[in-house]
Amino acid sequence: MKLLYSLTSPYARKVRIVAAEKHISIDLELVVLADPDCPVPLHNPLGKIPVLIMDDGESLYDSSVIVDYLDQRTPVSHLVPQDTKSKFQVKRWESLADGVCDAGVAVMIEQRRPENLQDPSWIAKQWTKVERGLQVLNDDLGQNKFCVADTFSLADIALVCVLGYLNLRFGNKLDLDKNYPNLARVNQALASRPSIAETVPPQA
Ligand SMILES: N[C@@H](CCC(=O)N[C@@H](CS)C(=O)NCC(=O)O)C(=O)O
């Protein structure tokens, strides 16, 4: 199996962390989406990463499908709980964390356009999704040690990935410690876990 990825993609990071936690070995192929000969569209018509290319040439996307596949591939350290209630709580966490990533990515792309072409109302709308999403996650987490059911799961992984991405692109603009202290606490507690420490996106 081979994963097409970039070092800064929060969605690809989620897959890399899940693979590490499950002890599943995957070849990694760094891609640059802007390259004219980038292989991604050959495997995902949407042209997005991550893409998992299976040994028979079939591909899997998007990240939530890939992590589901990896989690079901081996019973080692299930990251999506088996019981229905916790399972859908974890999936909702993943969905909201990924959705906050989507909004953050939209802001970053708009801010990279020439200033006179940027739409401040679009940026504000997307940024509101980021703040609203983080607030709900922060409230949901409360004083718990982990996001769902008192155990490490895909929800914690998705949280770490969105916070890592927002920190990379927007620095301390969110002031996590002050505004989302529950998220900041869990993020800090998980930072030294090897699968997480080894996949921190580079600042460059
Ligand atoms: N829902 C997708 C989102 C993937 C995504 O947006 N990836 C970004 C990189 S971080 C991308 O490939 N963007 C290129 C594009 O949208 O053309 C997933 O979870 O895999």
From TrEMBL:
UniProt-listed InterPro entries: Glutathione-S-Trfase_C-like, Glutathione-S-Trfase_C_sf, Glutathione_S-Trfase, Glutathione_S-Trfase_N, Thioredoxin-like_sf
Domain GST C-terminal: 83-204
Regions that span the bilayer: none
Lineage: Bacteria, Pseudomonadati, Pseudomonadota, Betaproteobacteria, Nitrosomonadales
Domain GST N-terminal: start-end pairs: 1-78
Signal peptide: none
Stored CDD domains: GST_C_6, GST_N_3
GO biological process assignments: glutathione metabolic process; L-phenylalanine catabolic process
Keyword Transferase attributed: yes
Gene Ontology terms for molecular function: glutathione transferase activity; maleylacetoacetate isomerase activity
Keyword terms: Transferase
Name this polypeptide is given: Glutathione S-transferase domain protein
